Amino acid sequence: MRRIGPAHTQRLAVGFMWTLAALTIGVLLFIIAFILWKGLPHLSWGFLSESPRSMGREGGIFPMLVATLYVAGLGVLIAAPIGLGTAIYLTEYKREGRLTAVIRFGADCLAGIPSIIFGLFGFVFFVITLGMGLSVLSGALTLALMVLPTIIRTSEEAIRAVPRAYRDVSFGLGSTRWQMVTRVVLRTALPGITTGIVLAVGRSISETAAVMLTAGSALGLPRSLFDSCRTLSLHFYILSREGLSMTNAYATASILIIVILAINLLAYWLMRRFAARVR
Amino acid sequence: MRREKLIAVALAALALTAVSGLAVITAFIFKEGFPLMVKVGFKEFIFSSEWYPREGHFGIFPMIVGSLAVTAGAMAIGVVFGVGVAVLLTQFCPPRLVAILKPAIELLAGIPSVVYGFMGVVVLVPFIREHLGGSGFSVLAASIVLGIMVLPTVISISVDALQAVPRPYYEGSIALGATEWQTTHMVMVRAARSGIIAAVILGMGRAIGETMAVIMVAGNTIALPTSPLSAVRTLTSNIALEMGYAAGDHRAALFATGVILFLVIMVLNTAALALSRRRAKGAR
């Protein structure tokens, strides 16, 4: 048997890894192209602005767009100040120690908990124990807990990336810690923090299992925080799973994909701006 | 100065939200699910294959096996692709391409799980049905879908681990006459080992915890799988499928299923955290 030389092995190994990468990117492009190709032809102004008829077999998705905006928007609105506050506390106020270790442990564990567990918790805690019912508010609060770790981590990274000298100069000019944080650190870290918030919005919009158990699946337009509603991703799930309408399912999926693409592009653009700023 | 103190206290209160949230979640899931496990008996609950909620039989063994089967399949794909792509990105890929590939992989993480499940239903399941037989709704379909879904987690954390390996390791190995590939798999991957294992464990957690995509492609039959083409139900699907109409002991049993899932995830998370902490210390 002939021994294969190291240079040859390297060519084989690298070639194999390029194949893996090409397949991965291929899957991504295929999913996006497939959904858009099948869904875009069914998109129309009417689809976006009308209510669904006969359980979603016909009509549009207007109430679901509103529901998604309410649940995901409110969820992130609740999580953002808490996450940012946590990040500021961890980076600017507290020396590394037992307390920061506990806080980090909490955030890390929360990040790993599956969405169905958040759903179970939201159901028994917000929906039943606190009596909020299946509602926009229950869904938003559950999502807020879910996206909190993302916001904490990205804000913390953004704040840590602000050069030390900025802080020294600010203190040197006689500012208090809080003035230094708000006027110097946060101002510089803003695009990085916004990236995290934008990604949290994306995650909230994508989420299905947790909102199904907490916001419910009512087809109507939510009129208050305590109304049940159906988000876009859940509507898409129900349409395809119950075989109600494949065309509407494809159209709804293409809206989801377009929104996610836009959110990721925005996050990417913000991150590049931030990287340029702190370099 | 008074104001500064107030701000510090307020920030501390915000910072405790995550960990108190975790505590409340743990408390409520256990409070709802644990008593039923005691009532049924742990052994019965975990090792019995009889799941007849109406008759009061709650055995989740088929769901445990189902979760393990799809997760094992997913990891077979996720580890090869995830670690392979991570090694490529850190060692062999020109920076200009890295700048395109990394956001693409982040986008893969952003695609909703229902879309993955849907793609499984309209593309993968019919393919398996035609070429391999069976209904197509199977362990195999779920494994492939989950394998793709865990890639962003495995890749990004492995990349971090590989990038944390000190540069002199690489240079030293090259200077000793090793090829780039020898350096990569004998020095770099070995040095980043605990971080890569942490990445795989976190990916495993994602696979076990995924719900909607699995419901859509796994078939959801309550039975022990006999081949990769068997339909299975996972722990997560069991909760999501029956929660809508469950009441009384049945609902408690679904929470108890959640308790088992929660325990598995916490063990995986803690292991991954411990591993990445060891790496952080070792790199210094």
Describe what this molecule looks like in 3D.
The complex is a heterodimer of chains A (279) and B (284). Chain A has 279 residues and is mainly α. In chain A, 77% of the residues lie in helices and 1% in strands. The mean pLDDT of chain A is 92. Chain A folds into two domains: 6-42; 45-278, MetI-like fold, CATH 1.10.3720. Chain A has a two-stranded antiparallel sheet with strand order 1-2. With 284 residues, chain B is mainly α. Chain B has a single domain (59-283), classed as Orthogonal Bundle (MetI-like fold). Helix content of chain B is 79%, strand content 1%. Chain B contains 13 helices and two strands; from the N terminus they run αααββαααααααααα. Chain B has helices spanning 2-15, 17-40, 42-47, 61-92, 95-110, 113-131, 139-163, 167-175, 180-191, 193-209, 212-218, 235-242, 248-283; strands spanning 51-52, 57-58. Chain B has a two-stranded antiparallel ribbon with strand order 1-2. Chain B is globular and about 70 Å long. Chains A and B meet through helix 1, helix 3, helix 4, helix 5 and helix 6 of A and helix 1, helix 2, helix 4, helix 5 and helix 6 of B.
Protein topology:
The complex is a heterodimer of chains A (279) and B (284).
Chain A: H1 6-39, H2 45-49, E1 52-53, E2 58-59, H3 62-93, H4 98-112, H5 115-129, H6 136-160, H7 164-172, H8 177-206, H9 209-214, H10 232-241, H11 246-278
Antiparallel strand pairs in A: 1-2
Helix pairs in contact in A: 1-11, 3-6, 3-8, 4-6, 5-6, 6-8, 7-8, 8-11, 10-11
Chain B: H1 2-15, H2 17-40, H3 42-47, E1 51-52, E2 57-58, H4 61-92, H5 95-110, H6 113-131, H7 139-163, H8 167-175, H9 180-191, H10 193-209, H11 212-218, H12 235-242, H13 248-283
Antiparallel strand pairs in B: 1-2
